[in-house]
Amino acid sequence: MPELPEVETIKRGLQGFCLNKKIVRVKSYCDKSLIGPREIAEGRTVEKFRRFGKALVVDLSEGVSLMVHLRMTGQLVWVSSSEEETQQEEPSSISTSKNAVSNVEIIKNLIKNRFAGGHPSDNFTDKLPNKQTRVEIEFEGGGKLFFNDQRKFGFIKILPTDEVLQDKFIASLAPEPWKMEAEDFYQRLQRHKNSPIKAVILDQKVICGLGNIYADEALFYAGILPTRKAGEVSKTEAKLLLKGACEVMEKSINSGGSTMATYVKADGTKGDYLRLFAQVFRREGEPCNRCGTEIIKTRVAGRGTHICPRCQK
Ligand SMILES: [Zn+2]
Questions:
Q1: Residue 124 domain-assigned?
Q2: N or C: which terminus of the chain carries fewer CB neighbours within 10 A?
Q3: What is the predicted pLDDT for the residue at 268?
Q4: Do 167 and 61 contact (CB within 8 A), yes or no?
Q5: Domains identified in the chain, total number
Q6: pLDDT per residue over 265-283, tens digit each?
Q7: Does any domain span residue 50?
Q8: Is the pLDDT at 95 greater than 80, yes or no?
Q9: Is the pTM of this model over 0.90?
Q10: What is the CATH number of the domain that holds 252?
Q11: What is the Å distance from ligand 1's center to 300 Cα?
Q12: Is there a single domain that holds both residue 129 and residue 254?
């Protein structure tokens, strides 16, 4: 599931491709995935990208915005117009003697003309639209932005810009860890004294931005067992946990999150972006980088949870 760092990397990546570009057409392949009147987005220019937790907001000219919720399996793929031409020529150039066009070159070309982020899958590199494409936004000059979503929990909402902050989801969000004071965080934990600390930090009304991956990573960073009651976390530990939340997410953002560049390496093989920063997440059975003890996977708050039984107390 794409989390805050993934959405932040998408925001940064898309800024480079679609800022100041004009939308000429918004096409929906699934009613559930596009909410609001698409006509009001057509003819508008992309002016600004904003992120609220895991929601991406694209502000268009004349007071219109697109709000993107990726949820479980959503992804955004930008395909520049030059790639479209390449794709159309592809069948002839590949089936003939030009098998010399190596896989590496195709991949390199893809990475140059595409930007993809969100739930990592082969859609990052596949020809689009495909059967998982829910919304297709065409820009002046031919570039296209595809919203793919296998499980259809995500959506794009078109709304007036001045209604963005009143949106039910955005209005309910707590501050992000970078904007929260340690004392405030501690007090927020105290309001959920008897719940396991992991469940509490996953609550977006307590702190915004931590999903399953970064909750596990932040708890490891702070040396706190996810099963401990929130009321038993000391002020010092709360401060360390907040610092951990900032650091693990920053590290992920800086390593590129789950974008195409981390999914498909330049040699065409698949990469795993979690490998770039994860200390415990999906590392069960492997030795802890800090103490060498085997990382174990348990279940806390109904979620798969990864811990080092020695480093976390
Ligand atoms: Zn350890």
A1: yes
A2: C
A3: 73
A4: no
A5: 2
A6: 767 777 788 888 899 999 9
A7: yes
A8: no
A9: no
A10: 1.10.8.50
A11: 19
A12: no
Q: Is the same domain home to 225 and 206?
A: yes
Catalytically annotated residues: 2-3, 54, 303
Instruction: Retrieve residue 108's tokens.
Output: 């390199």
Per the listing, tokens 């990208």 go with 49
**Domain of residue 221, residue span:** 177-307
- Mean pLDDT check: name the lowest of 128-137, 158-167, 190-199, 265-274: 265-274
pLDDT tens, residue by residue, 138-156: 999 999 999 999 999 999 9
Q: Please check whether residues 48 and 90 belong to one and the same domain.
A: yes
User: Is residue 150 within 8 Å of residue 133, measured between CB atoms?
Assistant: no
The enclosing domain of 48 has a CATH number of 3.20.190.10
Claim to verify: residue 29 and residue 164 sit in the same structural domain: yes
Distance 289 CA to ligand 1 centre (A): 7
CA distance 270 to 38: 36
Contact 312, 305 (CB under 8 A): no
Phi-psi label, residue 302: left if phi above 0, alpha if psi -120 to 50, beta otherwise = left
Query: Rounded to an integer, what distance in angstroms lies between the CA atom of residue 283 and that of residue 288?
Result: 9
Answer whether residue 312 is part of any domain: no
* Residue 93 pLDDT level (bands cut at 50, 70, 90): very low
**Amino acid, single-letter form, for residue 272:** D
Domain shared by 202 and 110, yes or no: no
Mean confidence (pLDDT) of the chain: 90
Residue the block writes with tokens 């798969």 = 304
State the Cα torsion 243-116-78-104 to the nearest 10°: 140
| Residue 116 CA, ligand 1 centroid: distance in Å | 34
Give 291 Cα–ligand 1 centroid separation in angstroms: 4
Q: Mean of the pLDDT values across residues 168-172?
A: 92
